[in-house]
């Protein structure tokens, strides 16, 4: 049994999370009294239909409960440190169609809560806990039903709780790391299955089907995001969504896909040759991107400024593109200063990962006037215990690059004739999920990425 499977035999540590969030709130309001109040996602019917919309549990609620059930509520009493989960009562008519739901007794065994009651008791419990001087109901704006009453509380705060949970979610505990490892293991199985199928497939959608089938077969019924299966020049589109184009005549497949395990995401990208053998140009670009990733991973540790790691990736990209002759007419420092490399590497190096693929707490600045950092989803120092993706890429996107070719500031550094040899490469991205530690990092992604191993796996099938 793997180490993460042993950890996952226990309960999701919801009470420990509630304690962390409480500590954060009291760091801002030392004498805070009252309750933390959260609601899970409520069932919503599809328009003009008697079927519900696809369900996705609210991440703020899950962080303090570990409960995946719809229409649930949560109260944490700051004075006693008591957590109470409220789940929907048994509806006899619904049992006819869907079978017995989770009962309060079941939920007490499944989830890390001191008490489990039914949702019919929520307002009575709020009224009881709201009595007394100085009590505050901490909740999240627009995530409270109209039927819920905070009338007994002296004050209501709809700002601090969300901020507190977001800050606490940055640093993962052992259980959260285990969930992420499990998601990575399943996603790796799916990635490898696509690699083994790619030579036989005729269309991107066949490969998407393989990825989904392997994920579901291993118990991961939800994807962390809509996977990308981009063949040929489509790989130059960062978040390609169609996944329905033929593979014939195309060099590479960029597969960006990650299954979710109990609300925790994986986010993995691999680029590999459809034929089983990289073209000369594809291998040259792949080697640059792999060097970008490996060198960036080497410098990761607690306190490292993510902006500096992103800058390092650009420097390595510039060196590589100069060596290939795509860049010309200046030295690496000049090209870096001009920001010409943004034409080929337009996105950020990575982002925090957790219950959301682009997880909270990264403090991005999308108004940054510097195009090199504008789309960096994480800014500033890395925290020990955080999980970050490292996903450098080099892309040959006409829409992005052609304006640079028309701009004398940038065109003097780009050899258009050499560039013409690389359009069919499309794009290369390599992405792993890294747990930051005090002195380095732990790679949670076991998916193969050595180019020779990729070719061997694809060709052997």
From TrEMBL:
Its EC number is 3.4.11.9. This is Xaa-Pro aminopeptidase. GO terms for molecular function: manganese ion binding; metalloaminopeptidase activity. InterPro entries: Aminopep_P_N, Creatin/AminoP/Spt16_N, Creatinase/aminopeptidase-like, Pept_M24, X-Pro_dipept-like. Its cofactor is Mn(2+). SMART domains: AMP_N. It catalyses: Release of any N-terminal amino acid, including proline, that is linked to proline, even from a dipeptide or tripeptide. Belongs to the peptidase M24B family. One of its GO terms (biological process) is proteolysis. It comes from the Eukaryota. The keyword Isomerase does not apply. Residues 12-146 form the Aminopeptidase P N-terminal domain. It comes from Sodiomyces alkalinus (strain CBS 110278 / VKM F-3762 / F11). Pfam families: AMP_N, Peptidase_M24. Keywords: Aminopeptidase, Hydrolase, Manganese, Metal-binding, Metalloprotease, Protease. Catalyzes the removal of a penultimate prolyl residue from the N-termini of peptides.
């Amino acid at each position: 049994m793997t180490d993460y499977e042993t950890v996952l035999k226990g309960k999701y540590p919801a009470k420990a999370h509630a304690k962390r969030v409480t500590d954060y709130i009291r760091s801002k309001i030392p004498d805070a009294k009252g309750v933390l109040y959260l609601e899970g996602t409520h069932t919503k019917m599809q328009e003009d239909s008697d079927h519900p919309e696809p369900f996705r549990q609210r991440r703020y609620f899950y962080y303090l409960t570990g409960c995946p059930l719809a229409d649930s509520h949560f109260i944490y009493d700051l004075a006693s440190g008591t957590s109470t989960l409220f789940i929907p009562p048994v509806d006899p008519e619904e049992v006819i169609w869907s079978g017995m739901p989770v009962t309060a007794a079941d939920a007490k065994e499944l989830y890390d809560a001191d008490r489990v009651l039914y949702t019919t008791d929520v307002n009575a419990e709020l009224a009881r806990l709201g009595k007394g001087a100085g009590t505050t109901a901490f909740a999240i704006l627009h995530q409270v039903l109209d039927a819920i009453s905070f009338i007994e509380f002296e004050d209501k705060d709809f700002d601090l709780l969300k901020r507190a949970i977001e800050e606490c979610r940055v640093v993962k505990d052992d259980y959260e790391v285990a969930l992420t490892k499990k998601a990575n293991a399943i996603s790796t199985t799916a990635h490898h299955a696509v690699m083994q199928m790619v030579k036989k497939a005729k269309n991107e959608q066949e490969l998407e089907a393989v990825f989904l089938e392997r994920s579901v077969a291993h118990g991961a019924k939800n994807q962390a995001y809509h996977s990308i299966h981009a063949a040929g020049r489509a790989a130059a589109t960062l978040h390609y969504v169609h996944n329905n184009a033929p593979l014939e005549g195309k060099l590479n497949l960029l597969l960006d896909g990650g299954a979710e395990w109990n609300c925790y995401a994986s986010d993995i990208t691999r680029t590999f040759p459809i034929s089983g053998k990289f073209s000369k140009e594809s291998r040259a670009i792949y080697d640059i991107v792999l060097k970008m990733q490996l060198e960036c991973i080497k410098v990761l540790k607690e306190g490292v400024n993510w902006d500096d790691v992103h800058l390092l990736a650009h420097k390595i990209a510039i060196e590589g593109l100069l060596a290939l002759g795509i860049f010309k007419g200046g030295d690496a420092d000049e090209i870096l200063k001009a920001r010409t490399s943004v034409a080929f590497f337009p996105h950020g190096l990575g982002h925090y990962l957790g219950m959301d693929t682009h997880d909270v707490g990264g403090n991005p600045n999308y108004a940054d006037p510097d195009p090199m950092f504008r789309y960096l989803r994480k800014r500033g120092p890395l925290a020990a215990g955080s999980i970050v993706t490292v996903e450098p890429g080099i892309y040959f996107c006409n829409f992005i690059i052609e304006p640079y070719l028309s701009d004398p500031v940038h065109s003097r550094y780009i050899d258009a004739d050499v560039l013409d040899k690389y359009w069919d490469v499309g794009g290369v991205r390599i992405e792993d999920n890294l747990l930051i530690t005090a002195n380095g990092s732990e790679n949670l992604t076991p998916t193969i990425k050595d180019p020779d191993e990729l070719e061997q796996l694809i060709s052997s099938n």
